[in-house]
Amino acid sequence: MVAPRVCVVGGGPAGLAAAEVLAQAGCAVRVCDAMPSFGRKFLMAGRGGLNITHSESHASLCDRYGPAADWLRPALDAWRAEDIRQWMAGLGQDSFAGSSGRVFPVAMKASPLLRAWLERLRGLGVDLSANTRWLGWNTQGQPVVQNTRDAGPPQDIEAEALVLALGGGSWPRLGATGGWVSLLQARGVDVAPLQPANCGFTVAWSSLFSQRFAGAPLKPVAVTFGGQRVRGELMVTETGLEGGALYALSAAVRAHVQAHGQATLLCDLRPEMDVGELASRLASTRARESLSNRLRKALRLSPAAIGLLREGGLLPENPHSLAARIKATPVVLGAPAAIGRAISSAGGVAWQACTPGYMLRALPGVFVAGEMLDWEAPTGGYLLHACLATGRAAAHGVLDWLQEGGARRYSLTP
Fold first, then answer.
1. Which of 16, 44, 164, 210 has the CA that lies 20 to 30 A from 127?
2. What is the pLDDT of residues 276-335, one digit of tens each?
3. pLDDT tens across 354-406, in order?
């Protein structure tokens, strides 16, 4: 029996996960990626240690996906955190859970895991075609690729099924350009606009603050928006704020900005102290000292934190009122930072456009996975976890479709 041919477009974690499942099931798999090498964004994530999943309860993990949790649940149920850790161990990369519950490889980088993964795929007979860009479909409705090194003539894809795992719109220099959106929309696929997620936001800083403190960290802080409070770090940029504490709130902030034009973030610059303790320390300082010195000596506020306080206008002299301001320093946020600077993206192929097996209803034989789908999640291992899980789920969707008598040869009528 001739092995079913499946082409996977996209050499990131979702695409490679799909390729692994398909190859293990006996399919002849070709993975195409426009970049010169595979897993470039995966390697970028490795610079932070490669937080690949989270060790919290499975129910809590699923809740991190917000409105998308219900339809992602079958994929997440089939590929849990413990499954990912066992899979890593099978590739020779042990893992550990940090104090926050985030799971990392012991090596604290992505390259050893990626090398072992690609070697496994090659051993399974997967054809890894780098420098190969998917162009869409030709006039006969067949998918087409082109070599990006020599820009040679387009080549038809000969396959029974096509898995698209092209990423969202963040980090375009690593391959996720979002160029697929118009191609799918032209074929009648419902695609929500791509938007930045886990991103910073613009702030109308004074020129003095921007020039002096761009690049300065604010830590430890706690930020509050819409009833949610998150502890972590912020970073001042020339045009705004970014950092993990803000990323955790970015979906809610983005929605508010879209509806109202701006959003006010409250920053607690001394989260480990209450108002009473802050006020007491301020009251004990010598009045003849400058306010900056009093804030620095009594509260150990950094110059950037003091500058942020002053950005909000004239500061109260009363110790209790000043302490209250320190615990809730308002920062008016404007538009999200550009999607190219975001860690991930929201938007993408609507779940209603897919079957439960991740096949596009408008394009039988075409499956989608990873950040191409319309979901978002905070940092903490949830992004990579869902990419791996949906890649595998799409592959199982392909296998089910082929088993049920899917097309002998993948082709679409224009």
1. 44
2. 999 999 999 887 788 899 999 989 999 999 999 999 888 998 999 999 999 999 999 999
3. 999 999 999 999 999 999 999 999 999 999 999 999 999 999 999 999 998 87
CA proximity to 123, closest of 20, 195, 25: 20
Cα separation of 100 and 146, whole Å? 44
Tokens of 87: 């899979």
Task: Fill in the DSSP letter of residue 170.
Answer: S
The alpha carbon of residue 384 and the mean position of all alpha carbons in its chain are separated, in whole angstroms, by 8
Burial call 380-403: b when 16+ CB within 10 Å, e when fewer:
bbbbbbbbbbbbbbbbbbbbebbe
* 377 φ/ψ angles, rounded to the nearest 5 degrees: -155, 155
Q: Give the per-residue SS3 of 6-23.
A: EEEECCCHHHHHHHHHHH
State residue 407's pLDDT score: 56
Residue in 17, 43, 12, 41 with CA at minimum distance from that of residue 29: 17
Q: Report the largest interatomic distance among the alpha carbons of the chain, rounded to a whole angstrom.
A: 89
Q: Which strands form 132-137's sheet, in the order they lie side by side?
A: 132-137, 143-147, 155-156
In whole angstroms, how far apart are CA 410 and each of 95, 157, 160, 164?
Answer: 39, 8, 4, 14
Residue 5, SS3 per DSSP: strand
Complete domains list, the chain, with CATH: 5-194+343-403 (3.50.50.60), 201-333 (no CATH)
Buried b (16+ CB within 10 A) or exposed e, 147-164: beeeeeeeeebebbbbbb
